[in-house]
Amino acid sequence: MTKERKPKNVFKEGAISSEFIAESIAKHQSKTSIGAHNIFLGQVRADDIDGKTVSAIEYTAFEGMASAKFHEIREATFSKFNLTCMHIYHSLGSVKTGEICLFVFVSSPRRKEVFKALEYVVEEIKAKVPVYGKEIFEDSTHQWKVNS
Question: Domain 11-17+34-138: which CATH class?
Fold first, then answer.
């Protein structure tokens, strides 16, 4: 019997700080059944598009729909992989180049599970969650980001 987890708020306003990431990791040191962690950090790139350089991305979402989709992905991941815990955080608002916009953290008793689970989660997020990014260029013009 799988335990039903309640939906978690995954959204953070602005960039996800290195201090927040470090605190998240540190909180798991007391969980002694964990043998492995794996972390994905999505960072905003200074892409060059048609001769203009991206300086930030402004993230927006249909929060209710996105939260439901994050929860669905989270539950599917727990059903497919032997995980102890999982945390997902995604930025909303403006995130400058070089800053973190997506933080996914999975833990398991065994290392092979965290490698497979993390790739699954990140690919599902990119494919299915309605979060949108508007690329802001150094000249203050903008365009909607196309995921690759």
Answer: alpha beta
Is residue 57 within 8 Å of residue 44, measured between CB atoms?
yes
* First CA to last CA distance, the chain: 37
Looking up tokens 């350089």, which residue turns up? 53
pLDDT in tens, 34-47: 999 999 999 999 99
pTM for the predicted model, two decimal places: 0.91
Q: What residues are paired with 133 via a beta bridge?
A: 59
Determine whether 58 is exposed, middle or buried from the number of CB atoms within 10 Å of its CB (0-12, 13-18, 19+). middle
Cβ contact 118:88 at 8 Å: no
Angle (nearest 5°) at CA 141 between 136 and 143:
60
